[in-house]
Every structure is written in structure tokens, then in C-alpha cells.
Amino acid sequence: MDLPLTGEPLALDLINTKGGSPDGPVDHLATVEGLRRWLTAQAHRLPQPAADLTEADRAAVVELREAMTTVVDLARRGLEPPGWALRALSDADRLASPYRTLDWSEGRVVVGAEREGDYRSTLLSLLAGATIDLLAGPIGTVRDCEGPGCCMLFLPAHPRRRWCSPELCGNRVRVARYYRRHAGREPQA
Ligand SMILES: [Zn+2]
Fold first, then answer.
1. How far away, in angstroms, is 22 Cα from ligand 1 center?
2. What pLDDT sits at residue 1?
3. What is the CA(26)–ligand 1 centre distance, in A?
4. Ligand 1 centroid vs 169 CA: distance in angstroms?
5. What sequence ranges are listed for the domain Zinc finger CGNR (predicted)?
6. Ion ligand 1: protein residues whose beta carbon lies under 5 Å
7. How many angstroms does the Cα of residue 129 sit away from the middle of ligand 1?
8. Among 87-101, 110-124, 170-184, where is mean pLDDT lowest?
9. pLDDT at 63
10. How many domains does the chain have?
11. Cα 54 to ligand 1 centroid, rounded to whole Å
């Protein structure tokens, strides 16, 4: 896969940038360019870097992803996450405190949302906050994709959803089932 799957809660989208995809192990954040592409794909819900992203930014996100993956993986199965991972999440959550701005425009007060701190702090804080929202909310319904070799996580909108993506894993499983049923027959060109 050239691009990571997106469209799940933010925390799951980030966790899913590393792991077993149907095409084998991947890490979409192995390079600064990979992080930039992921941030572009999340532009509807994450601020975009104004200056150039650095290797230190990437390393910080990957470190937080490690803690997020550990906590989500254990908590969704009812197991206690290690203290270092819980602390990493709550430390990142308060890196950039949210505050509100007030402006006057066209005869009324306009309320805006801002965060203290630089871009990296804001990004880490938003990612940790999204994970904490998931932990405080629907963590128990997070599911693994049933596709062979795939370990993407998703939050099913309906109870029958089985695949991270019907186009990827759903299709692969249907095609594999078809060839098993017609074992020995080569696909027609
Ligand atoms: Zn899958």
C-alpha cells in the first residue's frame, strides 16, 4: 500500500500507520516525508506544519505512537497497560493546553480555539487527546481486521463490519475463496 488507511478515529489511523497490512509489514512513518503525507491525509482534523518537518518531529510522533499502540492494544482487551505508556499519553496530552480566543466581528463575539506551544507540541497533544477520548469512550468495540495477515484496527459503525477496508481485505478474501472453490483452475485472462 502506498498510503495508509484513513477514516477511523484519529488514534486508530495513527496506530494503523505501522503493523501488518495485507501486503506485509509496513511503517508509513519511517521517513519525514511519510509523516508529511500522513498529515496531509489528515488535513481535515490536524493542523498542517508551517515550517519544514524535522526528524525530531517524526521521532516524537513515532515515540507517542508506540505508547498509543501499547495502551490501546491492552486496554481494549481489558488488560492493564504499563505505567510508562499511560504516563507518555497524559504527558503528551498536556503539552499544548487549549485556550479560546475572543474577537468581535460583524456585531458579535467570535470564539476561536487555539493551543499554547509550538507545532510539535500541538500535534502530540492532539494525538494523545484523541487517544484518551477513545480510551474514555468506545475502546471496547475496537476490532481487528479479519483479513489474512492484516492487523489493522477499526471502530465498526455497524456490528457486521469485518474488514479494515472492503476494497482491500474484503475483496482479497472473496477472491481467495473463489479460487479455493475452483481449485486447480487457473484464472482466465
Ligand atoms: Zn484488513
1. 6
2. 52
3. 13
4. 5
5. 142-182
6. 145, 147, 150, 152, 164, 169
7. 26
8. 170-184
9. 98
10. 1
11. 31
d(CA 20, CA 90): 27
CATH number assigned to the domain comprising residue 172: 1.10.3300.10
Distance 163 CA to ligand 1 centre (A): 5
Asked if 47 contacts 32 with a C-beta cutoff of 8 angstroms, the reply is no
Residue numbers of the domain that contains 90 = 10-181
Residue 3 lies in a domain: no
Tell me, yes or no, whether 158 lies in a domain. Answer: yes
How do residues 28-54 score in pLDDT, each as one tens digit? 999 999 999 999 999 999 999 987 899
pLDDT of 162 above 50: yes
What is the rounded distance in angstroms from the CA atom of residue 157 to the CA atom of residue 63?
A: 29
The mean predicted confidence, pLDDT, of the chain is 90
